[in-house]
Design goal:
The complex is a heterotetramer, with 2 copies of chain A (about 90 residues) and 2 copies of chain B (about 150 residues).
Chain A lengths: L8 E7 L1 H7 L3 E6 L6 H9 L4 H5 L7 E4 L2 E3 L10 E5 L6
Parallel strand pairs in A: 1-5
Antiparallel strand pairs in A: 1-2, 3-4, 3-5
Chain B lengths: L1 E5 L5 H9 L7 E8 L3 E2 L2 E10 L3 H16 L4 E7 L1 E3 L4 E9 L2 H18 L2 E7 L4 E3 L4 H12 L3
The chains are: A alpha+beta (about 90), B alpha+beta (about 150).
Chain lengths: ~90, ~150, ~150, ~90
């Protein structure tokens, strides 16, 4: 398992429900700093982005993540994921 | 096994007819329909808006159906989930399962609903009479309902 | 709560619409449909004839519905059972329950079917391809399904 | 609880499914002998009636009884029941 990737990656970030509303956007293309390896690293980085992301990520424990449509825990490695989504616990059905 | 996400309403009788057509091995069809209630925690709703994550929704629901197929002896299943803005009394979701015997059909229908509630990426926002919106919180009872199946694993 | 015995087929969508009309407290509708299978113990059926005990059927089904109402928080229920001669693929029985929440609707639907199978005075006679008739034997699994609810009593 | 009724009663007997087919009739009015008190007494008496009832009641344990639309066990007293039905275990649904 690689500890840190050697180069920055550009990914699509998607936001749903109140994360989307607070962030004020539904998706964006972002180049991630090279030292972001796990889902937890990414959430911590989002909190530092300021602006609308401050409110959107004020309660990070309430946010779930998916890499390429698959739920991930905070220790999951981003690896080659192309699309990363942030959203609250689901309430369908 | 199939999954549909749509704004339009669905017709249960028509869906049963399609799902069971030509298969006389089917002895049981179980259907669940979830509807928008007029009251939420004592507050009258004017509408409910459903958002989903296109792509991931189909992936998750397809996986849930595949798990149901492993656990139950099914002849077929269908999940239809609506998105968009719905009024009280309108249909939100339909889960239909058919099987040779009723235990499998009813069990799978319940299993699909429990997992759909906890895993399928849909979010509900309710609006009260003044149009004030509020995102619906996930319910612990839904998580508990889904957990039952983990200790029940075949 | 209502019970109907009839020769005619039923329309699930129409029955759901009638049962839920005007009641926006209903969040869940569970439906079970039992159908004539084309094979019974490996023998191809040409038809299935259902006989019942008029009067006692309504009494028993009414009691079963009343027990369901005691056990589950229901907004309404409907049992429709067909009698007469039916072909493979045709509907035999429909049980529909509606409730504020899905656990009650699905639980009551299963409860009603389990008890209907073991208590409602209906008898099935199947005819094979040559028209040879045979009365269907009661199944132990149906008795077991109904017994579950006794240990589960609220 | 009365041990034996003091007079004979006329009741309707009804037959369903294979009991009906074997008996060759679906219902009849019958005056029961005064010494028939329980469901068990009645089944034993039916077995002595001969004719088609011999075949219909050849396996008495396979037959269920209802008094006035209510299932009864073999020790139930007929009492004032007006309609008594004989049938195999039910197979609806």
């Amino acid at each position: 398992m690689q500890a840190t990737p050697t180069e920055a990656r550009t990914v699509t970030l998607r936001y749903f429900a109140w994360v989307r509303e607070k962030a004020g956007l539904s998706e964006e293309r972002v180049t991630l700093p090279a030292d972001i390896v796990t889902a937890a690293d990414l959430v911590a980085w989002m909190q530092t982005r300021g602006g609308t992301f401050e409110a959107a990520f004020a309660k990070p424990d309430a946010i779930r993540l998916a890499f390429d449509h698959v739920y991930v825990k905070r220790d999951a490695h981003i690896g080659a994921a192309r699309e990363i989504a942030f959203f609250p616990p689901v309430t369908g059905g | 096994m199939s999954v549909r996400i749509q704004e339009a309403d669905f017709d249960i009788s028509a869906e049963i007819a399609k799902l069971t057509a030509g298969d006389t091995g089917i002895g049981a069809v179980a259907t669940f329909v979830g509807k928008v209630r007029g009251l939420a925690d004592g507050v009258a709703l004017s509408s409910m808006t459903l958002e989903h994550y296109p792509g991931m929704t189909e992936t998750e629901l397809g996986q849930i159906e595949s798990e149901a197929k492993d656990r139950f002896k099914l002849s077929g299943s269908l999940i239809v989930h609506r998105v968009g803005t719905l009024r009280p009394g309108e249909n939100i979701v339909m889960v239909m399962t058919c099987a040779p015997h009723r235990g499998d059909a009813i069990g799978a229908c319940e299993f699909l609903m429990d997992y759909l509630k906890t895993r399928a990426p849909f979010w509900k926002k309710q609006a009260d009479a003044r149009g004030e919106g509020q995102w619906v919180d996930a319910r612990d009872t839904d998580g508990d309902a889904a957990k039952r199946w983990q200790t029940n694993k075949l």
